[in-house]
Amino acid sequence: MESLPLVGLILILLIGLVLFLVLFKFFGLWFRARLANAPVGLGKLVGMSLRKVPVGLIVDSRITAVKAGLDIPSDPLEAHYLAGGDVGHVILALIAADKAGISLDFNRACAIDLATKGTGKTVLEAVRTSINPKVIDCPNAAMGRATIDGVAQDGIGVKVKARVTVRSHLDRFVGGATEETIIARVGEGIVSSIGSAASYKDVLENPDRISKTVLAKGLDSGTAFEILSIDIADVDVGENIGAKLQAEQADADKRVAQAKAEVRRAAAVAVEQEMRAKTQEQRAKVVEAEAQVPQAMADAFRSGNLGIMDYVRMKNVEADTSMRESIAGGEKKDPV
Asked: Are 47 and 127 members of one domain?
C-alpha cells in the first residue's frame, strides 16, 4: 500500500514525458498551422506520424492551399498521399486552375495525378497545358519519321509536316487518349486529304485546305486534349508514285510474258524431241525392211521366181543409178 503513491507518481511522470515529447515534436507544426489560419489538431498530427505520413508535407500543403483561398482539410491530403499520389503537385495544380478560372475540384485533380503516375507527366503539367496550349509536331521525329507522305490522284507524292496546337481537356484527361493518338489521327487525316486532291499542285497552292479538312473531322474526340489549330509547316513534292507503280507493273507483266514464252518454248522443244523420236522409229522400220530384201531375193532364187539374168539387170540398173547420183552431186547410195 505504501508503494502505490510511488507507482502513481511514476505513471504521471511517464505520461508527462510522453506529452512533452509530443509537444516538442509537433508543437511547431501545430503552431505554424494555427498562425496560418489552417489549423490541424495535435491528435491528427500524431496519427499521421504513426501512419508514417510526412506530417510536414501535409501541413505545408494545407497552409499553401488555405493561403491561396482553398480550404482543403488534412484528411483528404493524407488519403491521397497514402494512395501513392503527389500532394504537392495536386495543391499547385488546384491553385493554378483556380487562378486561371478553370473548374477543377480536388477529387478530379487527385484522379488525374494518379492516372499520370509513372507516365512522366503530372497533374500540374496538365493544368499548365490547359492554361498555355502546347504544340505537337506531326509526325513526331522521335518515332523515326520526318514527314507524312500522301499521294494525290495524279500519282505524285506529297510530303507534309504539321504542327498541332492543343490544350488539355481536364474533364476527359482521365481515360482519354494521349498525344500519340492525336498524332496518328492527324496523320491519317492529312493522308486522306492529300489523296482526295486531284493534283499535287492543288495541295501546293492551298496547303490550308489540308488543315481545314482535318480540323473539321473532330479528331480530338475521346482524347485528353482539345485541338485548337492544325498548321502546315512544310509541303514538299515527293516521288512520282504513279509512274513508279506503272513501271513496276510493266516489269511484272514482262516477266509474266517471258515465263509464258518459256513455257511455250519448252513445249515446242518437247514436241520436236517427240517428232525426232518418231523419225528415228520410222527409220528403224525402213532399215528393218531393207534388211529383209536380200533374204527375199535368196528365197526368190531358190523358188525359181528370180533368174540370174534378172539379177544382172537389177545390178546394172543400180550401177547406172549410182553413177547418175554421183554426177548430180547427190549422196552415193550403197548398192544392196
From this structure: yes
